[in-house]
Design goal:
mainly beta; Porin; rod-shaped; eight-stranded antiparallel beta barrel; 259 residues; 2 helices
């Protein structure tokens, strides 16, 4: 049936196909197959770095400081997927398992002052670096499509994605005033919802090969937190509490081999 669909599309492109599917809706014909594919694309990760700074030395009177720093990462990703699908006349129902790697882990540099500095008192200033890293992403999803013509099938995707994410935030005081620093780091297993919209077209002269273009959205998950402090023996002893839970948008192109 897959070969027949490719031949029908080729006939359309050559101008020799003059009709749509001539299949009855009852009884509904069906066919199924396995598939393997590779994909690549461009992604954007969006969130804020939420930072709380508290001085923990006994007798300290400086209030806690709160900072929300914009954080946006863009970069490339690639991977592969396997799956199975069933055609019921023009309707497609499938399930796929994918593995992806991304390069969205740039360092972000910024600076801020503690609560005293924010109200123009004699506060301490800090320079900071934040980095959010995501290991391999594994996703399991269901795909639902409808073949409008033998050459074009839009589809929707819904599923879940899992990865181990790491947040690193480093802090350093002004060397002339407060020559101390600390690196905080934490990681967490994250499970996110996955939604997608795309379309698939067959490749002329290459039966069983299809090309896809797709948009994916991965939701926020629980916070990834990084905690740490400095024991300075100067009456400050700052403690930093940092967290992120980004959402991700992905545009990808895939080549799939229907087995």
């Amino acid at each position: 049936m897959i070969r027949m669909r490719s031949l029908l599309c080729l006939s359309l492109l050559l101008g020799s196909f003059s009709g749509a599917h001539a299949q009855d809706w009852w009884p509904l014909p069906w066919d199924g197959n396995l598939l393997f594919g590779v994909s690549g694309g461009y992604a954007e990760r969006l969130d804020n770095v939420d930072i709380t700074l508290a001085y923990t030395s006994p007798g300290n009177t400086i209030p806690s400081s709160f900072l929300i720093e914009d954080y946006t990462d863009t970069g490339y990703l690639g991977g592969f997927f396997v799956g199975a699908q069933v055609w019921i006349d023009r309707v497609l129902i499938g399930a796929e398992f994918s593995v992806d790697w991304d390069e969205l882990d740039r360092k972000h540099f910024f600076g801020f002052s503690d609560a005293n500095g924010q109200v123009r008192l004699n506060g301490l200033g800090y320079s900071a670096m934040a980095r959010y890293e995501r290991d391999v992403t594994y996703a399991l999803s269901a795909r639902f499509g409808y073949e409008i013509t033998p050459c074009f099938m839009p589809y929707a995707r819904v599923g879940v994605a899992k990865s181990r994410d790491t947040l690193t935030v480093a802090f350093a005081g002004d060397p002339a005033i407060y020559n101390f620093g600390v690196i905080t780091q934490g990681d967490a297993e994250q499970i996110r919802y996955l939604l997608g919209l795309g379309f698939e077209v067959p490749v002329p002269y290459l039966p069983f090969i299809g090309l896809r273009a797709e948009y994916n959205y991965q939701s926020r998950a629980k916070n990834t937190e990084a905690l740490g402090g400095i024991n300075d023996n100067l009456g400050f002893n700052p403690f930093f509490m940092n967290k992120m839970n980004p959402r991700t948008q992905i545009a990808k192109i895939s080549a799939v081999w229907n087995i």
